[in-house]
Amino acid sequence: MDVTGLSGAASMHAMSGASWGAPPQQKMSNLFDSIDVAGSGSIDKAQFEQAFQSKNPPAVFQKQGVDAIFAALDPNNTGSVSKADFVSGMTGLMASLRAPAASTPSTAGAASLETSLQSLNQIDKAAPSANAPQGSVVDLSA
Prior knowledge:
Blueprint: H1 9-16, H2 24-35, E1 42-44, H3 45-54, H4 59-64, H5 66-73, E2 80-82, H6 83-103, H7 107-122
Antiparallel strand pairs: 1-2
């Protein structure tokens, strides 16, 4: 389920039939078509599991697992998912599963900020002498 295109345009096209710049709904529609090889208009859990194993879904989807993703696509537990439900469900899942990662500051960034704040707090707060030329730099080596 190469839905992100992270592995390149050629692989994205080969995996899902989607073009590189296609909108997410089109990519999901093409992905559904590649899973529903019989053209029945719906996919069952076995078909979804096979696609999940063979199409290399993004890490955020792998972390959730095939059962959780399929359950989200099939909330009424019917055992199958229509194309419309797949497209809207996968598009929504992509957005929701990626949102926390994008909005949470990285640990390295937070550590760097903390280090910077500690360094600033160690600076001698004494003002430069009154006769120092404007724009003088305070000597921190002392």
